[in-house]
Design a protein that fits this description.
mainly alpha; 0% strand; 1 helix
């Protein structure tokens, strides 16, 4: 009877060891797959962060360029407004001078 129990226990132990080995292999495979997936996700994350950094740098450069262009355009606009005002002033002076000359000519005609 002891031999039969011993044999039964041995069979049960072998069965449990087989289940354990199978489960261990399954868990090792799951762990390997999870590590590969983690590595893939980390690679994608690094690529995404790199692309994000590149885009941010490009936007910073574009913003700097546009700020400079706006500053230059504002300065040009101010200069053109000043030149326009100068031309208007010159036009008004010449118109006044022309009117004065016309008045003088009419005065001379009346004298003649």
């Amino acid at each position: 009877i002891l031999e039969q129990e011993k044999y039964g226990f041995r069979r049960k132990l072998e069965s449990l060891e087989g289940e354990y080995d199978g489960r261990l292999t399954e868990l090792q495979t799951d762990l390997k797959n999870a590590r590969q997936e983690l590595e893939t996700q980390q690679m994608y994350l690094r690529q995404t962060e790199s692309e994000k950094s590149k885009i941010i740098q490009e936007l910073i450069e574009q913003n700097h360029r546009l700020t400079n262009e706006l500053k230059q355009s504002t300065e040009t606009e101010s200069l053109l407004e000043s030149q326009l005002q100068t031309l208007r002033d010159q036009f008004n002076v010449r118109r006044t001078n022309l009117n004065d000359h016309i008045d003088q000519l009419e005065g001379l005609r009346e004298e003649v």
